[in-house]
Write a structure and sequence with these properties.
alpha/beta; 7-stranded mixed sheet; 19 strands; 28% strand; UDP N-Acetylglucosamine Acyltransferase, domain 1
Amino acid sequence: MASEREKMMAGEWYRCLDPELDAMRERARSAVHAHNTLPPHERGSIAPALRVLLGSAPASAFLEAPFHCAYGFNILLGEGVYLNAGCTILDTAPVRIGARSMLGPSVQIYCADHHRDPVLRSQGLEIARPVTIGTDVWIGGGAILIGGVTIGDGAIVGAGAVVTRNVPPRATVAGNPARSIAPCG
């Protein structure tokens, strides 16, 4: 039988209230704490403990403090990615952020989706859906990206937008739920 971690990684329903997943989240909390509390001159662009935890983080990627993530290993950053202060990534599934993309302050990315049945939800049943952000994307402060969405290359997500659907390349979206406010191109 598959472990809860294996189910999570496969995009199947899994129980997040699991000792192995708890231990992985504790490791992430420790790395995030180091990143958020080190003086900037010691932290650099990403604190060493957090850089090791992340799935990929080139030297040119920069994460302002404070930052929060659930696991870390599912976060894949491209060259020159910038995350402003207060970003939260609940990376139960892969979160890919393309080269030169910028996330404003307090952007939130939520890959986990909890079960609709309250009994199953109370047992920690959830499913993980990936988020993909293309290259040269700008995501305004306070935006929320829900699991399963893809933001196309060169797109702009307005501040405070709630993105529940894919955003085409070079489109500009804003609002709750996010809707196109400017044509692609």
